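Holo prediction — adenosine-5'-triphosphate.
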Amino acid sequence: MLTNTMATADTASTPLLPDPWHTYLQSALAPDESIEAWLTLDLDDTLRFSDSVLVLTGRQLIACATDGQIAAWPLDATFELHAHDHAGVGSLTLQDDTARRAIWRFTLTQNPAALRFSRRFDQVLDALREGREAGPVPAVLCAQCQAPLPPDEDDCPACSGSIDQPPSTWTLFRLWRFARPYKGQLLLGFLLTLAATGATLVPPYLTMPLMDNVLIPYQNGQQIDTSLVVLYLGGLLGSAVVAWGLGWARTYILALFSERIGADLRTTTYDHLLRQSLEYFGNKRTGDLMARISSETDRICVFLSLHALDFATDVLMIIMTAIILASINPWLALVTLVPLPFIAWLIHLVRDRLRTGFDKTGRVWGEITSVLADTIPGIRVVKAFAQEKRESQRFREANRVNLEANDKLNRVWSVFSPTVALLTEVGLLVVWAFGIWQVANNDITVGVLTAFLAYIGRFYGRLDSMSRIVSVTQKAAAGAKRVFDILDHASSVPEPTNPVHLKGVQGQITLANVGFRYGNRAVLRDVDLVIQPGEMVGLVGHSGSGKSTLVNLMCRFYDVSEGAIRIDGTDVRSVPVAEYRQHIGLVLQEPFLFFGTIAENIAYGRPDASRDEIVAAARAAHAHEFILRLPQGYDSLVGERGQGLSGGERQRISIARALLIDPKILILDEATSSVDTETEKEIQKALDNLVRGRTTIAIAHRLSTLRKANRLVVMDRGRIVEEGDHDTLIERGGFYWRLYEAQQRQVEGEVLTPTITPAMPSAHTAGIAAEPALK
Amino acid sequence: MTTPAMDFTLTRDAFGHLSLTDAAGERHDHVQVVRAFPIAAPDEGISVLSAEGHELAWITHLNQTDPATRQLIDETLAARDFMPVLKRLKSVSSFATPSTWDVDTDRGPTRFVLRGEENIRRLPDEMLMIADEHGIQYLIRHLPALDAHSRKLLDRFL
Ligand SMILES: Nc1ncnc2c1ncn2[C@@H]1O[C@H](COP(=O)(O)OP(=O)(O)OP(=O)(O)O)[C@@H](O)[C@H]1O
Ligand SMILES: [Mg+2]
């Protein structure tokens, strides 16, 4: 009977019910009944995790519980299905015109599917009311999020790229990606290492003939052969000099190489970080990110330049020594290798602990920097509330956790090194014993034994240093993991796979059924809005009603959770992010100035702008005059967060910044909220000219600011509640009217008791204000 | 403490919506009951909000309500507050995030994806709050009270 379904419904989205539900439902379905939609519910009535399904056919709604128990509601024209969600739990309510019939719950994992289900339900019921067949599911929507697919694209721009894979544990090898450009240098470095190591192995070899051909014969009464002595000693000196030269070249080349890798790693990570959405930055702590990019990459770099190199040398040395030893005397060689398995086992034992330990210390370190990054910018609040003690306590606490993590690590570590040393000492003892026994049996000469002991000294010494490297390697691996964590994070505002390029933007913005949530908190619901090219729309509403959020979505700082935003009919998710933002001029509620001159700050969006253009933009934003009053005019330095300028001054600079890029779409989020009414009027006048020909979206609490708007959109708790021009809305006497009345009353009050308006910056105060930044 | 007289009545209609009638006899439909401190003090500070989000009534402690109202509030809150308490970590797919966790909660076994370590937040008193990729929040009431295996797994992320 399900094959039947395939024929009637649209194949692209035909819901094929998996088992066991399929089996359970057999009995409940009539032979010719087709399944229109189904939904897995992962919560039961008491909000416990348990799977069940909800199935919609053309005739009934069936709920099938985990144990196969079935409840059915024959469809009725009065039925309504309402979707709702709160704090991570979604619900679907079935009701008729008299009462609620049923309620089902699910986690937000199922939310897109639930919305699809409910939409299909509406379609089926509409058809039922009109007595026709419900058509096929419109196939142009993305199956996952209901966003319409852009033409010529199979992947939904909203959903693709949202599948993450955990990074593999062999993270250090992933550094190869950064090493590849330096292959040549790496190879050269390796060859040099090989040669240098070989050269250091010559001296012990020479002790063998020195002993057997010179010293032992002398002891047995023969003369010392001076020429032989000179030859051997010359060999010793020569090999030492060669080893020195080769060692120098190799260290230099490989150090250069590792510095480059470190720099590449850092810049790549930073570039990647910059491409992340605001959501990412909202979730991360600044200090932690800073620690990852600065100290972790540095740690990796040190590892590569010093320890990885040493390690490679050690491995080569051990292999070569083993070969030489075996070639001199295989039995003795075998005995020397006895401690090796023990050491390997020991390394294996501590490695995991060390890595997790270092991973943890890395995180704790991030916590320490986070405390700093939190407190230092907020120092004014800390001081104002006299909370220095508390902050100091917080820092101390972070340090305590750091100590704890390190102490634990050091406990493991401190046992490890001496143990390896002990094992090697024991190994040496075994070799002595076995060697003496062999000499006594005349199997080997004293020279051979001496050479062996000389080699073994190095061999074990290397083992010891190799075991030390376990710690640095694990440290670097933990660091690499944390760096790759950033690199592996796909932006939640992904670049489209098949980008659509905008040609000549008109500036029409369409919001279709837009829903948005921060985490599990639904902030916008069912927002439908079409803004025509060149239109000025004013967004008003209470604080927290979602105005800034809407604007964030239009700028694509975040992507919508449901629905779509289109510019000139193209889904913004299919346009490359940077290209899209070029068309948008944005003035934010909290203006941000970078460290640099005022001119640079104004030209931030268009560094190639001429001085005339900068001045023109500043004039238009009414920033020109106050800038001229600063001692260094446009060349005045403004510091972090624009310290040294007042809020209103900063705002005007950011208006100038937005105007300079001459955008098709201008977004003003409380652009004039921190200037006095007088200045606002002036800026307003300037803006009035500038908004002409641009699509403008302006948010303002002072409703008078929006006089020029063609249309006002009133928002309340994430929804659009009213739309129209000022007069219509006043006439309607609804939400807007109330807002307006309240403000009028306030304005009248202000006329009677004038409040202190922020004074226009006089030359004097502005000069003082600018000074700190100049130091 | 004696139960003070409540100056409002709560009722539920056939659609499952709550209505509040205040002391003046005015009726507010579609009201919502919310906890002010869902984690720190679930039984204290219950507020009744109107459909527009304005506060209509404040209940200092649940035990100050009469049994009928209390039951109504309990039912409503039970269906509204969803914060599974983690009882045990069975396994994690990897120690690097994103990682899929297989867990037992007070609401039955489930699995979820942890996006990043920063989604584990430390609250006072060794309490942890873990947000999954869909924003569902899992609570660990008291970290030292977890079994050793869970703590060991968890420690790799802290
Ligand atoms: N990053 C965020 N994470 C979670 N919630 C957020 C975030 N930003 C805003 N919100 C919430 O979203 C809602 C809408 O916020 P938004 O900033 O859009 O309000 P607004 O209308 O611009 O208010 P205002 O007039 O005060 O600027 C608020 O309830 C706010 O608490
Ligand atoms: Mg805002």
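READOUT: The two ends of chain B are 43 Å apart (CA to CA).
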